[in-house]
Design brief:
The protein has 223 residues and is mainly alpha-helical. 74% of the residues lie in helices and 0% in strands. The protein has helices spanning 6-12, 14-21, 27-45, 51-62, 65-75, 80-108, 110-135, 147-162, 168-197, 212-219. The longest helix has 30 residues, at 168-197. The model has no long low-confidence stretch (mean pLDDT 85).
Length: 223
């Protein structure tokens, strides 16, 4: 939903990217450094109640996610490994954000600890469903709340709560949990509809049109 803002940020960070392009810094370095920064901020500050400093620091490093892609295009370093690394680091960053705030909730509000843990799990599932569907040649590019929205709602509500604004954190967590659940359902339905349209879903005891997906399911062991 927030992808329309990417051109704006691309222009905003253009001079920084151009400067980085003249250095030995690689896009993968930026990707890893950004994730380390987000994880360190969230896991060190959220559990001790430093919500605003933690959210502000994490937000600073989140913006590096918009630098690595532009730098890769300028340097010609775009590739499958870079895309894989970026996706993997995103999952680690998400886990750090919601893992850190879950630890804080375990000390202050057990119900919200459960809600934030659900946000963590459902967010990972939302991303996995899309990746798995694309790996099977199916479409799951739909959803109410994708990663940018999850991060925005999560860090904004955490940061504002750290400034003393009441109720914003529970509202943000509950809204995020509901939105993530809806998005997961939307993506799973989209995959089913696409698979059905391609004859990959058996009906009334009839086998599906092709067997590779079934064999892939049987042979795939998820870690």
């Amino acid at each position: 939903m927030l992808n329309f803002l990417r051109p704006f940020f691309a222009r905003l960070f253009g001079p920084i990217v151009q400067a980085l392009a003249r250095t030995p810094v690689t896009p993968n370095m930026i990707t890893v450094a950004g994730t380390v920064g987000v994880s360190a901020a969230c896991l060190s500050m959220f559990p001790i109640g430093w919500l605003f400093p933690g959210a502000a620091t994490a937000t600073f490093f989140i913006f590096t996610d918009m630098l690595d892609g532009q730098l890769a295009r300028i340097k010609g370093d775009s590739g499958k490994f870079g895309a894989f690394l970026d996706s993997a680091m995103d999952r680690i960053g998400d886990a750090a954000i919601f893992g850190g705030i879950t630890i804080w909730f375990m000390r202050t509000n057990h119900l919200l600890a459960v809600v934030s843990l659900f946000c963590l799990a459902s967010g990972l599932c939302v991303s996995y469903v899309k990746a798995r569907a694309e790996g099977l040649g199916l479409n799951a590019d739909v959803g109410l709340i994708e990663r940018p929205e999850r991060v925005l709602i999560g860090l904004t509500s955490i940061g504002l709560s750290g400034l003393g604004i009441p109720y914003v954190l529970p509202i943000g967590m509950w809204a995020l949990a509901a939105g993530s659940a809806i998005t997961l359902g939307q993506r799973m339905r989209a995959v089913y509809v696409d698979a059905d349209a391609k004859g990959e879903v058996p009906h009334h005891g009839k086998p599906a049109a092709s067997e590779p997906a079934a064999r892939q399911r049987a042979n795939t062991g998820e870690a």
